[in-house]
Amino acid sequence: MSSHKSIRNGFAILAFAASAICPVIAAHAAPVSVFSTDFNSATLPAAISLGSALITGVQGYAGLGPVGNQFGGNFLRSATGNVVTLQLNSLPAHTAINLSFLFAAIDSLDGTGTFPQGDFFNVVVDGTTIFNESFANATSYQIQSYVPPVGVELARRVDLGFSGPGGYYTDSAYNLGADPVFSNIAHSASTATIQFFIQGVGIQDLNDESWAMDNLNISVAPAPVPVPAAAWLFGSGLLGLIGVARRKVRTA
Ligand SMILES: [Ca+2]
Ligand SMILES: [Ca+2]
Ligand SMILES: [Ca+2]
Questions:
Q1: Ligand nearest to the CA of 206
Q2: Which residues are within 8 A (CB) of 53 and not within 5 positions of it... i.e. 6 or more apart?
């Protein structure tokens, strides 16, 4: 066997070995938005079932939130005990789902305990509860189970509108989308049913306590795309090295 032929065989063996070691390389793409609303339009997307919730002005919440994701215009306000449902269909292939929204804890939500305490905000994805925490606004000694990660709390027990001001009717605001619990939720079905509600033994009427959401965005992490071994070799620079070696063989 000539030296050139043995070198060519060496290249073939290297390529084969690479394809055996790395037959499929997973390429992870950026999250893809599948639903987004700022609730400012008078017409809500058909994917949302409101129950008794209403689109209403954000009042004193306006401007709270990070740049590009602030309360503004209208938001979706709900009584406690009412369920808001987002139904998404025909989702692209994906491995995880991400939820992002601003949350308004309005008026005298009472935290954990017995009536009127017992006001728990829930987020349920396809029947699985991913968030179940109480919120307390009325007094400083009530028990709020939710401990927000750094950067999530936007305002706590201040007057932002609706009932009040003062008394038990102070308000709070949170950028719940910044809480990691709402990111990378394992999910691959082509549909998603997402429910939002405050439930518990402490629920009371709309003028006593309520909640709202603004800037609701849902995205999915696309399923990894298989990359052929040759493309991986190209990306890794190995093909370039092989090319240099071949040119050296030809000029030898
Ligand atoms: Ca809005
Ligand atoms: Ca208030
Ligand atoms: Ca209550």
A1: 3
A2: 76, 77, 78, 79, 82, 84
- Fold held by 32-223: Jelly Rolls (2.60.120)
Q: How far is the CA of 21 from the centre of ligand 1 (A)?
A: 51
| Spacing, Cα 50 to ligand 2 middle (Å) | 22
Q: In this predicted structure, what is the pLDDT of residue 18?
A: 47
CA dist 213 and 18 (Å) reads 50
The pLDDT tens digits of the residues spanning 190-202 come to 999 999 999 999 9
Q: How far is the CA of 44 from the centre of ligand 2 (A)?
A: 25
Domain assignments of the chain as residue spans, ordered by start: 3-26+226-251, 32-223
CA of 236 to the centre of ligand 3 (A): 59
Instruction: Summarize pLDDT for 113-144 with one digit per residue, the tens.
Output: 999 999 999 999 999 999 999 999 999 999 99
Q: Which ligand neighbours the alpha carbon of 158 most closely?
A: 2
- Measured CA to CA, the distance from residue 24 to residue 148 in angstroms comes to 40
